[in-house]
Write a structure and sequence with these properties.
37% helix, alpha/beta, 7-stranded mixed beta sheet, binds inosinic acid
């Protein structure tokens, strides 16, 4: 009897659920595991045996994150989420948006992307932009999407060398530094991705997804 109670308590209090994050980016995996805490174990694509490139052929962030999550959910039968992020520049009608990684062509090149962006915005007064992330979570026949965005401006030239992607040319509103001049912790407090992830974590806790 005592043994049975011990196992039940163990199950109720220490049960951890595996959720696959459909990404190969180690930094993102760590960041999400940290935010999710101990109730959930973030499993990488490698761990579920997915070595192939995920399809990402949609025209929106919503479509791409759903496509990636669906691929893993259907093929590997595990609760799964995927993210997709884009930089949306007002003066460019929301471009590069879903095409942010390959804005300057193949292969993806952060330096070339920033150079093209600065060239296209040369002389432009409206430098407003936002980073936007969409996360799609699939589990037990349910589908949920979570959005996070951070508004800011595109600088005239690169500043700082932390971070990745367009960080050196993006200055979040209300801050005097570019994303690339912030520590990872500072950026994580306000970033588009962290906001979307926090909404996702809140959902998991509120709905006790286990
Ligand atoms: P992904 O969907 O997270 O792979 O992001 C697509 C592209 O958006 C990346 O290749 C980067 O160019 C850009 N990007 C995404 N997140 C960030 C960020 O936090 N800072 C700067 N650039 C980013």
């Amino acid at each position: 009897m005592i043994l049975a109670l011990f196992f039940m308590a163990n199950f109720l209090f220490f049960y951890t659920m595996d959720i696959c994050f459909a990404t190969n980016n180690e930094n993102k995996l760590k960041e999400v595991q940290w935010l999710l805490g101990e109730d959930y174990r973030v499993v990488s694509l490698k761990e579920v045996g997915c070595m192939e490139e995920l399809p990402e052929t949609q025209k929106t962030l919503e479509g791409n994150s759903l496509q990636k999550a669906e691929y893993v959910y259907q093929k590997y039968n595990i609760p799964c989420f995927a993210d997709d992020t884009g930089l949306e520049v007002v003066a460019l009608d929301g471009k590069p948006g879903v095409y942010s990684a390959r804005f300057a062509g193949e292969p993806p090149d952060n330096e070339a992307n920033m150079a093209l962006l600065l060239k296209m915005l040369k002389g432009e007064k409206n430098r407003n932009a936002q980073f936007r992330t969409v996360i799609t979570f699939l589990e037990n026949g349910r589908r949920r999407q979570f959005e996070g965005f951070v508004k800011g401006t595109i600088l005239e030239q690169k500043q700082g060398d932390e971070g990745f992607g367009y960080d050196p040319v993006f200055k979040p509103s209300g801050h005097s530094k570019s994303f690339a001049q912030m520590s990872l912790q500072e950026k994580n407090e306000i970033s588009h991705r962290a906001i979307a992830i926090r909404k996702f974590v809140e959902y998991l806790r509120k709905h006790q997804v286990k």
